[in-house]
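Hi R.,

Here's the chain you asked about this morning:
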Amino acid sequence: MLICNNEAGMIASALDYTEKLREITPAIYGGRPKACVNTYGCQQNVSDSERIKGLLAASGYDITDNSDEADFVLFNTCAVRGHAEDRVFGNIGCMKQQKKQRPNMIVAVCGCMAQQQSVCDRVKKSYPYVDILFGTRHSHKLPEFIYKRLTGSGRIFDISEDFSGILEGLPVRRDGNLKGWLPIMYGCDNFCTYCIVPYVRGRERSRCSDDVVREAEEMIASGFKDIMLLGQNVNSYGKGLDEDINFAKLLRRINAIPGDFRIRFMTSHPKDCTVELLDAIADCEKVERHLHLPFQSGSDRILKVMNRRYDSEAYLNLIREARKRIPGVTFTSDIIVGFPGETYEDFLETVRVVKEVGFQSLFTFIYSPRNGTPAAAMPDPISREEKGRWFSELLLTQEEISKANYKACEGKTYRVLCDEITGEGRLSGKTSCSLEINFDGDASLLGSFVEVRVDRFTNVLEGTII
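And here is the predicted structure, written out as tokens:
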């Protein structure tokens, strides 16, 4: 792991402030303080929160899920859709009374939503009980922010973009010990016209492959059986690194780590999904036989306005190539309904692609304008009610496809990782093609791979261990 002097200094500073906090907080709070981290949005945010919790634990905080008992409450926010922002502001508003009752309590906001200047200004003006706000580039400075606030500093707001690197070696406190998140890159260079991510997450930065592999080895040695590789666009991993690496090669390196575990990843951009990557998935026995490939729209006209840089036929050819090279592969996708300027005829092109691919499931959304993106300024004449009707039509179409796909699983046997207790004597687990199956089993099987025969599909797949 090569670290430049500047980054080494930033790491040393972060760790120095964790020590300072351990020294002062017991006297302020009458014992070990407690911290609550509320996370919104994508898996990347969940992973970021694990690193924030690592810094808090190193600073002497006990982690709790109950904000009512916490001395430090943080909201790690999402800016992708308006509904997520509304939820965050509502929950921040609920902290006003708690702050009145416990003046030493610190309330903080961070993440993608906080990175936006408009949000920063709104919090500064309308939420005076928020002590700290920082964006996506300054999580490592959290111990410093808390220390300064506790020792008399005024409110702290930092959404500067003066650091765009990656700091390795800071503590992580993972939420579980079976399924784990492993970020391999940050940021995005695609600038889809509807998406705020490049503006709040910054440009693409990939982690050195040795650092990724080292962290994967540590997770596997600790007992993790399900490793989810994360990035805004994992398919473009490796660009800008001074080594001969890409995502396909990284998968092969992690697959070669000894142990019985499964590798998953998201999210993949179709334009960067190569034959080399498909072959790596097929060759690597630990890599899930599943692709989450967001296509967003089946209309070539809308795809062009979205700046997706592929058309529907290129996407369908990619699906065909994946099926040819990866036996049993399954697909999921993201779709935006009602993009500005979309017509019903454009929408029907999306339905056409959905029917042709036969997705296992879809993540579907009615378009939500994001201030600062090109799409937010585009004419959008179709009413929300009309878009809602299209949305319902799409859901019904996918529901029938999913039912047929799941019914086709009956009688087949799959290798399943037991990863959840769903009830007394009941377990749930996922197959290598990302199918979820419920079955009878003892809790001692958690974390084990078992062979399960699918007996029937009701609203879920039900099976039996064989």
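One quick note: The chain has three domains: 5-158, 179-407, 413-465.

Cheers,
M.
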